[in-house]
What does this fold into?
Amino acid sequence: MLRILIADDHPIVRQGLGQLIAKNADMVVADEASNGLEVLDKARTSHCDVVLLDISMPGLHGLDVIRQLKKQSPKLPILILSMHSEEQYAVRAFRAGASGYLTKQSAPDELLAAIRKVSMGGKYVSSSLAETLASNLEVGTGKLAHETLSNREYQVMLMIASGKTVAEIAEVLSLSVQTISTYRSRILEKMQMKNNVELANYAIKNQLLD
It folds into this structure.
């Protein structure tokens, strides 16, 4: 019996996933979590076999959750189920230690297959993502500008590119306006861009926005 920890900040999503899992004789919901810190706590106490994790939750970002979970329980498989496209976060999720990445547009059967595969120590990737991962492993492949950013910088860059103000980003991430402004300056410097418009155009060109 596979014990699944469902981590998503939307109750209706957790409920739907729980109902889907309950229909399968080889799976059961071990526990639920609604934010990043709660995931780490529940993973310690629920004796789960797989963590089904949303990458965007309040508090600790999903990429940071993955890294801390892998330190806490190195062999625990983490399957990402995200509203964000593969282009946005999949490569970073795998680098952090995830075992699989699916979007929330995936079919239920695909999700169940992915849970079973990662529970047995496998990796679950779509064919399109496999090509992306392969290209990232090619010798001599130059980094794109956004790949030079840290995970937090990348998260802030996407929010700026989507049109959010520094104040709005600070509120969402529970950080000070000054801290976000520092991130913005660092992002522009690393990506060799002058303003938010250039960031937005870059993100659209590289299909980083939903």
Q: What stands out?
A: The CA atoms of residues 8 and 34 lie 5 Å apart. DSSP finds ten helices and five strands in the chain. The domain at 2-137 is CATH 3.40.50.2300 (Rossmann fold).
